[in-house]
Amino acid sequence: MRLRSPAAEDGEPVGTAYGFAVEADTGWWDELTEPVPDDMRREDGCHTFGLMELAVRGPWRGQGVARCLHETLLNRVEARRVLPNVHPDGKAASAAYRAWAIARPARRAPGKPGPL
């Protein structure tokens, strides 16, 4: 599922957010930078929604765009848990999750493909 925020004057979106339901046969858990316990790895296609990207262009940061995208996307998700993912260098996304009191996001190794 992908959401795009309204366009700026130049026609480019000011932000984007997307994710997907983690399938039962995923190898995604093996691509994280820290090991995950076996009981957390059990998937059925409905258990976990992986929030893969949450990005806002620089001039629109700090105006609530990311929070709005985050809430709008997750209001459409029926998974029992949401796992936000952040690239190890994703300082803005990590700061947003901390500000929203969201548990530490999962971190994928740089250059690893997504589980789609």
Question: Can you tell me about this structure?
Answer:
This protein is α/β, with parallel strands linked by helices. The chain has three helices and five strands. It has a five-stranded mixed sheet with strand order 1-2-3-4-5, covered by helices on one side. Helix 2 links the parallel strand 3 (48-56) and strand 4 (81-86).
Approximate shape? globular
Which residues form runs of ≥5 with pLDDT under 50?
A: none
User: How much strand content do the residues show?
Assistant: 15-25%
The radius of gyration is 14 Å
User: What's the number of extended β-strand segments?
Assistant: 5
Mean pLDDT: 78
Helical fraction: 10-25%
Q: List the total number of helices.
A: 3
Largest sheet: 5 strands, mixed
- Main sheet: strand order: 1-2-3-4-5
Structural class: alpha/beta
* Distance N to C terminus: 12 Å
Order of helices and strands: EEHEHEHE
